[in-house]
Amino acid sequence: MGTRERIIDAAEQAIHEFGIAGATTRRIAVQAACSEALIYKHFAGKEELFLAVLLERLPALAPALAELRQSVGKGDVAANLTAFALTALRFYARTVAIGGGVLGDPPLIAGFRAMLAETGAGPHLPILALAEILRTEQRGGRLDPAIDAGAAASMLMGACFHRANLACFVSLPDDDESWAGTVVATLVRR
């Protein structure tokens, strides 16, 4: 394993153990068995390092969106969307520690916003991609054309995000799979 990978692994571990605020470059360097200067040789700042943790170590939505795109016109639309919703829920559950910490740190969120703008990335992109998939299913006659695809995508992703956050505070009454199926069935009702 290379130095960059060790640093990312150490950052992920530090975030899960100490939160964003406690994931200092000093702690990360000790865990990665390197100097703080070496961290900055590989990453411009903590924002870039934390984004690398998000993009490279946590479950990603891009493969799930690609799989959903491949299922357009095939199989059961509700089942396909439910499988995607479960992946989105898992993604948000794993990223809640980073997201919450970033939101609570004004300089860090400013750095993240600037970096996302520079790279053209951001949390809105999966919603846009999902909306386009829903529109394609509408054009194929598999979803009600009266559904606002953009709103439905926002609601589905928002519901997944909300449930992941709620689960940090309380035990939820129903299992994730039945919850996802119910949410999808509500959104795609014909």
List keywords for this structure.
mainly alpha, Homeodomain-like_sf, Arc Repressor Mutant, subunit A, 2 domains, 190 residues, Tetracycline Repressor, domain 2, TetR/AcrR family transcriptional regulator
Topology:
Elements: H1 3-22, H2 25-32, H3 36-42, H4 46-57, H5 61-70, H6 77-103, H7 106-119, H8 125-139, H9 149-166, H10 176-187
Helix pairs in contact: 1-2, 1-4, 1-6, 4-7, 5-6, 5-8, 6-9, 6-10, 8-9, 9-10
Keywords: DNA-binding, Transcription, Transcription regulation
InterPro entries: Homeodomain-like_sf, HTH-type_TetR-like_transc_reg, HTH_TetR
Protein name: TetR/AcrR family transcriptional regulator
> What is the structural class?
mainly alpha
Low-pLDDT segments: none
Number of strands: 0
Distance between the termini: 51 Å
Q: pLDDT average, as an integer?
A: 91
The run of helices and strands is HHHHHHHHHH
Task: Walk me through the structure.
This protein has 190 residues and is mainly α. It has two domains: 1-57, Arc Repressor Mutant, subunit A (Orthogonal Bundle); 59-190, Orthogonal Bundle (Tetracycline Repressor, domain 2), CATH 1.10.357. Helix content is 75%, strand content 0%. It has ten helices and no strands. The chain has helices at residues 3-22, 25-32, 36-42, 46-57, 61-70, 77-103, 106-119, 125-139, 149-166, 176-187. Helix 4 packs across helix 7 (106-119) and helix 8 crosses helix 9. It is elongated. The mean pLDDT is 91.
